[in-house]
From TrEMBL:
GO terms for biological process: coenzyme A biosynthetic process. GO terms for molecular function: ATP binding; dephospho-CoA kinase activity. Keywords: ATP-binding, Membrane, Nucleotide-binding, Transmembrane, Transmembrane helix. SUPFAM superfamilies: P-loop containing nucleoside triphosphate hydrolases. It comes from the Eukaryota. InterPro entries: Depp_CoAkinase, P-loop_NTPase. This is CoaE-domain-containing protein. The chain crosses the membrane at residues 220-239. PANTHER family: BIFUNCTIONAL COENZYME A SYNTHASE-RELATED, DEPHOSPHO-COA KINASE-RELATED. HAMAP family: Dephospho_CoA_kinase.
C-alpha cells in the first residue's frame, strides 16, 4: 500500500486538493488529521486528551460553558511566535492521540487491500510524519496568498489579519518544506483546472507505478507477505531520510557559498 502524506501550510489548499483525490473519479481513501485532531478533544474521547489540556491550561481558559473545547481560546493560546511553549504542550497531547488513531486507520486500509491512502496533514514536516510515508506531496502557494485566502475564508468567523499572521508564523515556511517533498503542486493559480490537471498527472503516475505490471506484483507481495512489506517499508523510510538529508545538506552548502 502506498501511504501518501499531503501537506502544505495553512490555507495553501490542502483540503481543496485532497477533495480532488478523494472525490470522483479517483475516490482515493483519505485520512484528514485536522478532523482526527477534532475528534480526540471531544469530552468523551477515550484518549482523555481534553482532560490533559484542561489540567495544563485550566478549565476557565479553554472550555466552553458546556464543557467542550473553546477552539478559538486554545487557538489564541497556542498560535504565534511567542506561544511556542504552549503550542508544544498542546501538540504533545493532541498529536500523540492523533498518531494512534492514524496508525489504526492505516492498518485498517492495509487489511482491506487498499492500494493508495492519503493522509492530509498540515504538519507532516514539523511532526516528522514525512519519514514514514511512501511519498510526500506539498501543496504550495506564496505566503501572502495563504494569508489572503485564510482571511477571505475565515474573517466571518472573527479571524483578524493579526490572527492569520500568528497562525502562519506557527508553521515552518512552505519554502523550507520543499526539500522534503517528492511532488510540489503549484496552487498559486486561481483557476481550479490548473490544480485538477496536476492531480490527474499524479494519479496516472501512481496507476503506472503501483497498479500495473511489476508494480502490481510488488504491491500484492507486500500485502500477502507482511514481513516483506515491513522490510520494504523500512527500506523506503531509510531511502527517503537519506534523500532528504542530502538535499538539506546541498541547500545549506548553497546558502553558505552565496
Ligand atoms: C488550536 C485549535 C483548537 C484551533 O482550532 P480551529 O478550529 O481554529 O483551527 P483548525 O483545527 O481547523 O486548524 C486550522 C489550521 O491551523 C493550523 N494548525 C492547527 N494546529 C496547529 C499547530 N499546532 N501548529 C501549527 N499550525 C497548526 C493548520 O494549518 C490547520 O489546518 C486546533 O487547531 C488544534 O487543536 N490544534 C492543535 C492540534 C494540531 O496540531 N492539529 C493539526 C493536525 S494534527
Ligand atoms: N487555486 C485556488 N484558487 C482560489 N482559491 C483557492 C484555491 N485553492 C484554495 N482556495 C481557497 O483558499 C482557501 C483555503 O483552501 P483550503 O481550505 O483548501 O486550504 P487548507 O490548506 O486545507 O487550509 P487549512 O490548513 O486552514 O485547513 C479556501 O477558501 C479555498 O476555497
Amino acid at each position: 500500500m502506498l501511504v501518501v502524506s499531503l501537506t502544505g501550510g495553512i490555507a495553501s489548499g490542502k483540503s481543496t486538493t485532497s477533495r480532488l483525490f478523494s472525490g470522483s473519479p479517483y475516490n482515493i481513501p483519505l485520512i484528514d488529521l485536522d478532523v482526527l485532531a477534532r475528534e480526540v478533544v471531544e469530552p468523551n474521547d477515550a484518549s482523555k486528551t481534553l482532560k490533559k489540556l484542561v489540567d495544563h491550561f485550566g478549565a476557565e481558559a479553554i472550555l466552553n460553558e458546556d464543557g467542550t473545547l473553546n477552539r478559538a481560546a486554545l487557538g489564541r493560546l497556542i498560535f504565534g511566535k511567542e506561544q511556542e511553549q504552549n503550542r508544544k504542550v498542546a501538540n504533545k497531547y493532541i498529536h500523540s492521540a492523533v498518531r494512534k488513531r492514524t496508525a489504526w486507520l492505516v492498518m485498517k486500509y492495509w487489511l482491506t487491500g487498499t492500494p493508495v491512502v492519503i493522509i492530509d496533514t498540515p504538519l507532516a514536516v514539523e511532526a516528522g510524519l514525512w519519514k514514514f510515508c511512501g511519498e510526500m506531496i506539498l501543496v504550495y502557494c506564496p505566503a501572502e496568498q495563504q494569508l489572503e485566502r485564510m482571511i477571505k475564508r475565515d474573517s466571518d468567523k472573527g479571524l483578524t489579519r493579526e490572527d492569520a499572521e500568528n497562525r502562519l508564523n506557527s508553521q515552518l515556511a512552505l519554502e523550507k518544506k520543499i526539500s522534503y517533498a517528492d511532488v510540489v503542486l503549484d496552487n498559486a493559480d486561481n483557476a481550479k483546472s490548473t490544480l485538477e490537471q496536476q492531480v490527474k498527472e499524479v494519479v496516472e503516475r501512481w496507476e503506472t507505478q503501483h497498479n500495473r505490471g511489476l508494480g502490481k506484483v510488488r504491491t500484492l507481495v507486500q500485502w500477502l507477505i507482511p514481513p516483506v512489506g515491513l522490510i520494504m517499508a523500512l527500506y523506503a523510510t531509510w531511502a527517503r531520510t537519506s534523500r532528504v538529508s542530502k538535499r538539506l545538506r546541498e541547500e545549506k552548502q548553497k546558502e553558505r557559498s552565496q
